[in-house]
Amino acid sequence: MGINDRHSLVLKISKDDPLLEKKKILMHINGSESEVRIYFSSATCPEWTKITLQAALRYARVIHLNEAELYFGRGDVPLDFYSTRNELESLNSILSVIDTLLSGATSKSKEDLQDLKGATIDLISSLGDKNDEEIRIEKCSCSTVELLLQWGKNNGVKTKLQIAYIEGAGRGAVAMEDLNIGDTALEIPESIIICEELVYETEMFHVLKEIDGISAETMLLLWSMNERYNPDSKFKIYFETLPESFNTGLSFGLDALAALEGTLLFEEIMQAKEHLRTQYDELFPMLCCNHPDIFKPELYTWDKFLWACELWYSNSMKVVFADGKLRTCLVPIAGFLNHSLCPHIMHYGKVDSVTNFLKFPLLLPCREGEQCYLSYGNFSSSHLITFYGFLPKGDNSCDVIPLDINTPEANDSGDCLESDPMHMVRGTWLSSNHDIFYYGLPPQLLDHFRDDKLHKKTYDYLVKEVEILELLQSVFNEMMDGLGEYDYTESDNLNWDVKLALEFKDLQRRIISSVLASCSSGLKMLETELNQIYSKSDKDGLA
Ligand SMILES: C[S@@+](CC[C@H](N)C(=O)[O-])C[C@H]1O[C@@H](n2cnc3c(N)ncnc32)[C@H](O)[C@@H]1O
User: Fold this and answer.
1) Which CDD domains match (predicted)?
2) For ligand 1, what atom is nearest to the CA of residue 374?
3) Dist. CA 413 → ligand 1 center (Å)
4) 439: Cβ below 6 Å to ligand 1?
5) CA–CA separation, 146 vs 463, rounded Å?
6) Which domains does the chain have, with CATH numbers?
7) C-alpha of residue 147 to centroid of ligand 1, in Å
8) Angle, nearest 10°, between helix axes 302-315 and 264-283?
C-alpha cells in the first residue's frame, strides 16, 4: 500500500547488473533513480490499468536492456519499444511484481491487482500474436523419437509438448494443449542430463586428467564421440535421434565460404574452425596412438570430431545443478526445442533444488498445436549461422555491424581520456527517430564525430553534420561494394550452405542500404536547413 490508499509497483535495477551505471544514467535522465515506484489506483480513471502499465513498462524496459540495446537507445527520447526480447522480459517482470503483491493482498486490492494482471497478460499475448508466423508443422512418426520420448517418460520426464517436423527447422516441439504464462511445458529430471560426471566414471578420464589444461567440456566432447557408437550406452536412444550432419557454419563448403568472403561471418567461421583444428591436432593422433583401446582411431577422425563439436555447440545448454554448480550439458528431449526471437521460454537454466527437475516455464502463452520456442540467448545471426546453422526469422536486435573507429583523444601515457564505446550500426528501420540530428542512426556514433564546441543549429554545426553523414556514406558505400551483387537467378538449385551464405549477405546488404538511406535523407534535411540559413542571411544582407 502506498500513499492515499494507492498501491505501488516497485521496479529496480539489480545491484549485480554489469550495466547498472549506464542504466542508472538513463533512468536519471528520465526522472527516476535505480528504483522506481509507480502508484496506481482503480479510482483514478477508467484507463488506469493501461496508464499504470505504460508507466511501469518504460522503466522495466531500461532494467532489461542489454549492451547493444543500451548503445542504440538514447536518454532524451521516450523509453520506447527496444526489442521483442526486451518487451517480453519487461512485461514478465511486471507480472511477477503483481503476483508478489497479490499473494499478500486484501480482497478489494486483490480485484485491482487481478485487473492489472489481466491487462499485463493481454499485452504479452498481443506481443506473441504480432510475431506469429505461418509455418508448416507435420506430425513426427519417427520411431527413434518416439522411443526417446518413452524412455524419457520412464525416467520421469513430464511434458506438455510433442515432437513434430517443422518446415525449415528439422524437428521441433509443439504444444499438446493450450499453455499459459507460468505453466511448465517440460520437466527433465537431473538424472538424465548428460554432463561431465559421466566422464569421471570412465577409463577415459584417467587418461584425460593427465592432459594439462584440458577442460571438462573437451573431456565430455571426447566422451560423446565414443558414446555415440557404444551399444550399451545409457543414452543409446538419445544418440540415435541425433542427425547424421548438423549443417552449421562449421561445415560450410568452399562455395559458401567463397560467397562470404569479405564478411565478418567468413572471419568468424574461419577462426572457429582454426581453433577446433588446433585443438584436434593437439589431441590426435596422440591419444589414439597411446591408448588405441580407449580412443579407437576410427571413432576419432577429424570429421567425427567436427560432428561432436557441432552437436555440443548447437544442442548444449548451460545448467546450474541442485548442488549449485554450472555445467555444460546435453538435455535429452529439451534438445528438440527450436530458437525464436519471440520465444515462449527464456529462463530455464536452473535445476529446482527441491524436485531435482530442470523446468521450462512459459513467459508467453502457447496455443495447442503451436510450436513452442526457446531462446538460445542473445545471439547475432552470424553467431547463429556459425554455431547453429540457421538464420532466425524477424528483426534480430543483435544484428549489428561493428565499426573500427579509433578514439582520437589520448593522454601522454597513451590511455584514452574518455571511454568510447565500441561503435556499430544496425538496420535503421529498428530506430524510432529519423528526424534531423537523429536520422535513425546510433546517437552515440554521431556524437563521436560531433564537435562539442559548436552550438546546435548554427551554420557551422550543420556543415559539420553534413561532413559526418558524407563520411558515413563513403564508409558504407565501400562496405556495400565489397559485398558484390546478389544473384537470385539460381537460388533454387543451391546447396544449403551457399543458400545460407547468400541469405546472410542479403541481410548485411539490407542493413547497409538502410544506413545509406538514412544518410541520404539526413543530408536532404540538412540541405533544407542550410538553405533556410542562406535565404535568411540573404534577406538580412538585402535589408
Ligand atoms: C537444439 S536443436 C533443436 C532441434 C532440431 N531442430 C532437431 O531437429 O534436432 C538446434 C538446431 O535446430 C535448428 N533450429 C533451431 N531453431 C531454428 C530456427 N528458428 N530456424 C531454423 N532452424 C532452427 C538448427 O539446426 C539448430 O542447430
Assistant:
1) SET_LSMT
2) 16
3) 50
4) no
5) 68
6) 3-130 (3.90.1420.10), 137-388 (3.90.1410.10), 401-542 (no CATH)
7) 20
8) 120
170 alpha carbon to ligand 1 midpoint, in Å? 6
Report which of 266, 310, 269 is spatially closest to residue 505, judged by C-alpha positions. 266
CB-CB neighbours of 140 under 10 Å = 18
Is 168 touching ligand 1 by the criterion CB < 6 Å?
yes
Task: Report d(CA 125, CA 135) in Å as an integer.
Answer: 19
pLDDT tens digits, 478-502: 999 998 876 656 667 899 999 999 9
Question: Ligand 1 centre and the CA of 180: distance in Å?
Answer: 24
b/e map 147-181, b = 16+ CB within 10 Å: ebbebbeeeebebbbbbbbbeebebbbbbeeebeb
ipTM of the complex as predicted: 1.00
Grid cell in block for residue 313? 555447440
The residues, ordered by sequence, that sit 6+ positions from 316 with a Cβ below 8 Å of its Cβ are 328, 329, 330
Ligand 1 contact, 389 CB (< 6 A) = yes
The span from the CA of 473 to the CA of 324, in Å, is: 51
Instruction: Give the amino acid at 47.
Output: E
CB of 336 within 6 A of ligand 1: the answer is: yes
Cβ pair 277, 309 in contact under 8 A: no
**Per the confidence metrics, is the pTM higher than 0.95?**
no
pLDDT higher than 60, residue 5 = no
Q: Considering only CA atoms, which residue is closest to atom 7 of ligand 1?
A: 171
Rounded to whole angstroms, the Cα distance separating 48 from 190 reads 45
Nearest atom in ligand 1 to the alpha carbon of residue 335 is 1
pLDDT in tens, 500-514: 999 999 999 999 999
In the block, cell 550452405 appears at 497
